[in-house]
Amino acid sequence: MMWKYFAHIYRDLRNRISARLRKYNIGSGQSEVLRFLFHAGDGKSQDEISRELELDNTTVTRAIQRLAKNGYVVKIKDEKDRRINRIYLTEKAEKVDSIAKDTKEKVFEILVDGVSDDELEIFMKVLKRMYVNMENTGEEIHFE
């Protein structure tokens, strides 16, 4: 039952952000790449982006091409290895980041409406504990 709620909240947040970004000619795959670059920092290679987002190279390449065409990122060859493209955010992308952040804040306000500070604090402790538990298991979960 818990998974239903996690999935619904995550899906709803992504849908709301995607809907707002569509006005700026940014699709959902492109918004994932942008979010990653905003959080991880730009200057990542296409391979790093693919690996971190767990998306195939073709999908990431297409997303980056569209983002570059629309002026949200630029590709710059790595100085040490010219085969590698580093992806950098443009000033135009900064506006998109503020829109995504604003949407997240509004959704958070909706989520915590009627939830006391104490309840939220307990929930966050439990959520962090669950996160740590998953991180500590590594890649594989062994079932007996």
Characterization of the model:
The chain has 144 residues and is mostly helical. It has one domain (2-135): Arc Repressor Mutant, subunit A (Orthogonal Bundle). The chain contains six helices and three strands, in the order H-H-E-H-H-E-E-H-H. The chain has helices at 2-22, 28-40, 46-53, 57-69, 91-111, 117-137; strands spanning 44-45, 73-77, 85-89. Strands 1-3-2 form a three-stranded antiparallel beta sheet. The model has no long low-confidence stretch (mean pLDDT 89).
The radius of gyration computed from the alpha-carbon positions, rounded to a whole number of angstroms, is: 18 Å
- Helix and strand run: HHEHHEEHH
CATH class annotation:
Mainly Alpha
Mean pLDDT across every amino acid position: 89
Give the oligomer, counting copies of the same chain as homo and different chains as hetero.
single chain
- The backbone outline, from C-alpha atoms, is globular
CATH T-level topology: Arc Repressor Mutant, subunit A
Strand order, main sheet: write it out: 1-3-2
Q: How much of the residues is beta strand, in percent? A: 5-15%
What is the compact description of this entry?
By secondary structure, this protein is mainly alpha-helical. The protein has 6 helices and 3 strands.
